[in-house]
Amino acid sequence: MSNEFGLFINDSNETPRLKIYVDKENTPKIELLDENGSTLKQ
Protein backbone atom coordinates (compact mmCIF):
# COMPACT_ATOMS: atom_id res chain seq x y z
CA MET A 1 0.00 0.00 0.00
CA SER A 2 2.18 2.83 -1.14
CA ASN A 3 1.15 6.39 -0.34
CA GLU A 4 -1.62 5.28 2.05
CA PHE A 5 -1.65 6.14 5.74
CA GLY A 6 -3.79 4.47 8.33
CA LEU A 7 -4.45 1.52 10.60
CA PHE A 8 -3.85 -1.98 9.20
CA ILE A 9 -4.80 -4.97 11.39
CA ASN A 10 -3.53 -8.49 10.68
CA ASP A 11 -4.85 -11.82 11.95
CA SER A 12 -2.71 -14.36 13.84
CA ASN A 13 -1.27 -15.55 10.49
CA GLU A 14 -0.08 -12.00 9.64
CA THR A 15 -2.74 -11.71 6.92
CA PRO A 16 -4.26 -8.22 6.59
CA ARG A 17 -7.92 -8.35 7.70
CA LEU A 18 -8.91 -4.75 8.40
CA LYS A 19 -7.72 -1.54 6.76
CA ILE A 20 -8.72 1.95 7.84
CA TYR A 21 -6.77 4.46 5.82
CA VAL A 22 -6.62 7.54 3.61
CA ASP A 23 -5.57 6.75 0.04
CA LYS A 24 -3.25 8.80 -2.18
CA GLU A 25 -6.21 10.93 -3.33
CA ASN A 26 -7.07 11.79 0.32
CA THR A 27 -10.19 9.62 0.28
CA PRO A 28 -10.91 7.82 3.59
CA LYS A 29 -11.39 4.05 3.22
CA ILE A 30 -12.45 1.15 5.43
CA GLU A 31 -11.98 -2.38 4.09
CA LEU A 32 -12.73 -5.77 5.63
CA LEU A 33 -10.70 -8.59 4.07
CA ASP A 34 -11.07 -12.37 4.03
CA GLU A 35 -8.26 -14.83 4.81
CA ASN A 36 -7.08 -14.62 1.19
CA GLY A 37 -6.84 -10.83 1.16
CA SER A 38 -9.97 -10.32 -0.95
CA THR A 39 -12.22 -7.41 -0.01
CA LEU A 40 -15.41 -8.50 1.79
CA LYS A 41 -16.77 -4.99 2.42
CA GLN A 42 -15.76 -1.41 1.73
Commentary on this structure:
With 42 residues, this protein is mainly β. It has one domain. Helices cover 0% and strands 52% of the residues. It has no helices and four strands. A four-stranded antiparallel β-sheet has the order 1-2-3-4, with no helix packed on it. Strand 3 and strand 4 form a beta hairpin. The relative contact order is 0.27. The mean pLDDT is 90.
Map the helices and strands.
Elements: E1 5-10, E2 16-22, E3 28-33, E4 39-41
List keywords for this structure.
single chain; four-stranded antiparallel beta sheet; mainly beta; 42 residues
User: How many DSSP E strands?
Assistant: 4
The helix-strand sequence is EEEE
pLDDT averaged over residues: 90
| Share of helical residues | under 10%
Alpha-carbon distance between the termini? 16 Å
- Ranges where pLDDT stays below 50 over 5 or more residues in a row are none
Structural class: mainly beta
Strand content: over 45%
